[in-house]
Fold these 2 entries.
Entry 1:
Amino acid sequence: MSITHSLTTSLSSSSSAFLAPSSFNSRGQVSLPVKSVSICKCVATPEAETAYKTGVTRNPNMGKLQAGYLFPEIARRRSAHLLKYPDAKVISLGIGDTTEPIPEVITDAMSKRSHALSTIEGYSGYGAEQGEKPLRRALASTFYSDLGIEEDDIFVSDGAKCDISRLQIVFGSNVKMAVQDPSYPAYVDSSVIMGQTGLYQKDVEKFANIEYMRCNPENGFFPDLSSISRPDIIFFCSPNNPTGAAATREQLTQLVQFAKDNGSIVIHDSAYAMYISGDNPRSIFEIPGAKEVAIETSSFSKYAGFTGVRLGWTVVPKQLLFSDGFPVAKDFNRIVCTCFNGASNISQAGGLACLSPDGLKAMRDVIGFYKENTDIIMETFDSLGFKVYGGKDAPYVWVHFPGRSSWDVFAEILEKTHVVTTPGSGFGPGGEGFIRVSAFGHRENVLEACRRFKQLYK
Amino acid sequence: MSITHSLTTSLSSSSSAFLAPSSFNSRGQVSLPVKSVSICKCVATPEAETAYKTGVTRNPNMGKLQAGYLFPEIARRRSAHLLKYPDAKVISLGIGDTTEPIPEVITDAMSKRSHALSTIEGYSGYGAEQGEKPLRRALASTFYSDLGIEEDDIFVSDGAKCDISRLQIVFGSNVKMAVQDPSYPAYVDSSVIMGQTGLYQKDVEKFANIEYMRCNPENGFFPDLSSISRPDIIFFCSPNNPTGAAATREQLTQLVQFAKDNGSIVIHDSAYAMYISGDNPRSIFEIPGAKEVAIETSSFSKYAGFTGVRLGWTVVPKQLLFSDGFPVAKDFNRIVCTCFNGASNISQAGGLACLSPDGLKAMRDVIGFYKENTDIIMETFDSLGFKVYGGKDAPYVWVHFPGRSSWDVFAEILEKTHVVTTPGSGFGPGGEGFIRVSAFGHRENVLEACRRFKQLYK
């Protein structure tokens, strides 16, 4: 690279000051010198000054982004830590990556489909961009039975994150968005990239022209909607990443009513719905009238360990209309056909197996395992006197460290226990003072991490 | 759906008049009445008039799009034809979909990876968004050895079409694009969607603010660059889809020089490079200086039959800089991390097997088979007195029907021979008067289609 960035590796920087990754290979690969560099220097080499530059102006929206995408940044810090402590047994309860093997009933189906592609009868090329019909049908009957969602309302994807970005392309730059604060960073970042926002306001740690709907212990992690000025699009994740809070039926009903009153569209991210223990709604379409105001995006990632296999889906009901009466689903379909070519047929075979009776049972077992991890983590922090939230309906535990910087706590935990967590402020200013601890991990690692937490905070 | 569109199914409409698909399930599913409807009617049902509408304004860029994406539209017409002639043996030489089984050396690797995901040792979750290191390394050494492209310049994707769209997100709305005319429709459509263009100009069948670089027999299918006003981004596909023409070394050198003179960036789509028979460059990076002005996108789809498996890659050299010196690769990496989560790990295992010595041999055998098909199709049309282009370096044959509408010829061939082709004007106004015949097909189908062509045009 012709411009050399020597980046700080200080782990005590605050969230808004954390820096763009210096390497493209952010996950698991570090290509920069790490030791004892503690000041940010941008050094232009002699070639850089004479290097050929095209005449193409950089997209100003890209320039608005403040930092590397959160999880690669955490991976970078993890790698830097490993360089500093090469013998440390680092445990990752950070990125929210699944760790348990995929049940065989599911991998058998993917293996079979792979082999079938070598036969004349079993070979298939381009599939429907919207997904294979049997999978769409199985999704409709498994998750939306009696909710009035039909199989042609369901678009199969390579994951919820990818569909969030495709939804942003559908809406374009002239919409105003609202997000829970804290929330999954892809909502805000994709909004910035699409040009929906103003500049980043350093003083409040927010982008201009986004409504940040504060969710905290005081309001039961459900925003005070009366204080929100009208948004076009509301990203709402329930059970929530990172707080672990699932909205109640009353709260979701309020949200749907708010959307209707304001003519807004809710994008309901239900990627953790199968982790719900009690009676809270698993789908926003359980709320009457939601089909006219809501989209729902979901994923096999955290149900079947498909974080690497890549499979998700998005429901865009045909009843959802733009202000001119044009169906949103028609534009989403156009984007799916133009910017995407369908999920891998092998992954789709796996998805179909997930929804068989044996597959569903196997998925529930894996989810049950992670929920036991959640209990262990919650009990640990609880026993240490921390206020602990989430956990019950989600694989995330949201631990309060009042008055402290999240990145400081993240760094302290990493330095002293070799456990990677996620700093709450990485999810927005409303996450400051919290740490998200993920329950995805082998049991012995979760137990060991909890032992170390008890050492550190006893 | 609350608005009922009864769409014309006349097969004689001209390219610019072809209509948006009436069904979301465009491939292989038709949900509209087809018989004897020949006038376009938009009938609002009573519910439609009273249906709830959100207050969200439809993205005006979506409204600019003139028609359904080309290939779903063709699939729709194919389905309509099947409804009309339920007993016809329809042969598809249209959409460019691979038909031959994937060699076992490749599916074995995918099957093995699937099974490994069921084991503690073999399980993996999120991979690097940019792709697995061994695959990036193998791509670099297989296709870019001695060209100065390094493995960290290569981003693995779920296909070239998806990366084209991600590249458009990187560039944003304030760039001016140039495309070969005719060309693969995703370039123009994604440009419209991103807001880079003006409205569609019906008289010339072009969008405003795109440079259409005419490629025809007269100029040897290489544009007259002296007539092009400065574009920011030049999409250049070689070997070309649909014309089948591969640029020579001199032509690509001219293109690189043109980009350098104008400060433009070339996006070189090399998805058919392995079909090149002679000495034409397989990669734009064979041209000195190209790393400072070019991106290259490619795919396993047409090499290994991965149209359904989904795997491709894009090379963004670190030497490629925006006008302010910021590396394009850094912004592309940010998009890959924020809007994508990596290609399926199972597909990547298949990709790695493709690049093993046995895999490469197997891919070359499949490509050789399709190239024999190409010869058969070329000889057929040649023997019937047509001017035939392409074929030598690409799996597409570009047949000239001077003075005739492409959609008329498409409809005539479908109606009289039950063979699906692709109308040239679907690729841009420069394709008018041509038909693209794809060489992807089982041998007996290609031979049978050619027999029928000989019947029709004897």
Entry 2:
Amino acid sequence: MLVVQKYGGTSVGSTERIRLVAQRIQNTIARGHQCVVVVSAMGHSTDALVDLAKEIADVPDAREMDSLLATGEQVSASLLAMRLVHMGTPAQSLTGWQAGIATEDVHGNARVTSIETARLRQLIDSGITPIVTGFQGIANGNITTLGRGGSDTSAVALAAALHADICEIYTDVDGVYTTDPRVVQAARKLTEVSYDEMLELANLGAQVLHPRAVENAKHFAVPLVVRSSFSDEEGTSVVAITEQTLEGRQVVTGIAFERQVARIAVIGVPLQQHGLATIFSELASHGVNVDVIVQSVVDAAAVDVSFTVHEPDLTKAVGIVESLQESLHFTRVERQSDLAKVSIVGAGMISNPGVAARMFVTLRDANIAVHMVSTSEIKVSCVVPADDVERAVKALHVTFVEADAEASLSEAGSAVK
Amino acid sequence: MLVVQKYGGTSVGSTERIRLVAQRIQNTIARGHQCVVVVSAMGHSTDALVDLAKEIADVPDAREMDSLLATGEQVSASLLAMRLVHMGTPAQSLTGWQAGIATEDVHGNARVTSIETARLRQLIDSGITPIVTGFQGIANGNITTLGRGGSDTSAVALAAALHADICEIYTDVDGVYTTDPRVVQAARKLTEVSYDEMLELANLGAQVLHPRAVENAKHFAVPLVVRSSFSDEEGTSVVAITEQTLEGRQVVTGIAFERQVARIAVIGVPLQQHGLATIFSELASHGVNVDVIVQSVVDAAAVDVSFTVHEPDLTKAVGIVESLQESLHFTRVERQSDLAKVSIVGAGMISNPGVAARMFVTLRDANIAVHMVSTSEIKVSCVVPADDVERAVKALHVTFVEADAEASLSEAGSAVK
């Protein structure tokens, strides 16, 4: 089997941990597999480089920042390869350009465009394990980086290009849980989630895998496994879910939540003004990320629109919206802070009506107010008071995970959506 | 003018110093020059990387060591380019491979074989200052390093390839002195030395410039200047010396010295055995550097040979020589430690007989024993007791530098060699 293994910053955080990672790679090879390894920078070394750059310039040049940050992975890759060679396992470190990872010609957040695998193939065929620097590539002879979670993306892209049998993401948690175990003691590790579920869970705060990496894995059908580099426990598989595998699964896979949510409502936006387009374009151009958007028609001539932003962005966002009042002629802007978002996620929802209703009933029974609702095919999100978020997650975990563990799908299906 | 500037580790030892270097580069450009900059790694950052490698393996793999160490210069080059861009001076950092620096396919001590200057030329012509990582190159797609003093070599190689008008080596001393100012207060900075003089001075302990860089500068006729990055003082020019410029120069340019010298004498080596070749080949293959070698014929059938080694190598060297006694049939091995070497260096010696004699007279008058003598066209070296080395340097500095400052060449020429 050809295995791509990615080790995150914590997993290679010290020379001692690099030794353990080398041992794990050697064991994988001893079991008869071929390995391609992708590493992040050691622990907080990237932060140290960022601090240096800040001492040099308030807004460091993006090209130079990439060249600076890329050294972090080069250090960990060299040390890991050095350790493997020392242990008698042939290995070679490869930087982004050496591994043939071509990206868009942008800095700080480039996307991988193609991988020239000739050199990697040659190493693998010669029994030499390539240790590839994550997070980086090359464009027009310049070093580029892939942005946050970039090493996950590198690993998935390499697995896709090499047609690897599996891509193992080693991190400091041992898999994906039904919800945050710090909030719900009964949270349990999932043996399997779908790419889409993982995307919703990743976006909603289960920061185990970067969403872009999951998207790519889905697109190229790369089987992923998330597991811990500190134990030998089985991790969580992230896979495509077919109609067949869907049968017998729980309706809800996990409960995600997000704190620091604020709501902005724009009241009485005249319909003929294309006001919505203007408002959200303006917010985007100022770098304000908008999450849930809910619109309702007040009368034939105007709409009310509500949306959530990350709480620290609230004042800025309200300022931007208010600056548009004169041109858009809306009535007023309202704001509400101290909110949170709680979501149930599960591919099984598609074929199970009534899931949303069970969520509302659960929250009502727990006496938790719901300020906004948003749904997708595999997710229902409710905006609730920040103070109630942990109670909401616990109650929903009981309803959908703990109780459902014994419940049948047909039972869930009998509820009214 | 096209100026190559090389900044050593101390000169870029902190972000504050990098800011000062950026200012100096900007000033050079403001005076109408084009700049290509070569940087070493920040301060002791290379030592930190070496320490990491030692935690990974007793004998780190050479390829991975090069890849690891190369990050040091990449960090300083990125930060310096970042600073220049921040100051409004267009600049781009280039690693060894980006700058087109091809080397031999060996690790740890590669020689530059060629430089593909297209990218550098393009940047220079576009008004963008290239900031090149010193000490490193590329061979067969692998990162190589040039060994100790490698950044000097990079700078000279780039100056030669780009036909630069001058190569300025910025360091933490303000030039080359007639001798070590810590030993002789009257030591004065030289405005000019020849490549050959610089080579002898560099080899003999004035560690301002790496000998290989001086050799290359001589070979490609690159005009060098050694100066301080901490002041605006004029430095020392290292140039070719012609018959014309030789006239009017002092006979002796500088007094070099080296401590920790030990002497080994092999007595009664039979002539027919090719014993010398065996002895010195054996020492070389064990990594023992031999410096002064003196041989004298005892009778028609045997020779005595004496040579010096670095004192810490003495026991090892004696052991190697003694192990050859059975096969080479020499009489015995003698050893002497606690020695030092003092040398007078000057291109003017070639045309001035009697310089050696004046050296011996000076040492005799100072009551200093001379154990070995070795001469080249521009150097006379004497091995003396370690305890006497500072007195020897002072006395020779008086004779050849301080007194000669007023003396004429013809006067020196009248002495008998």
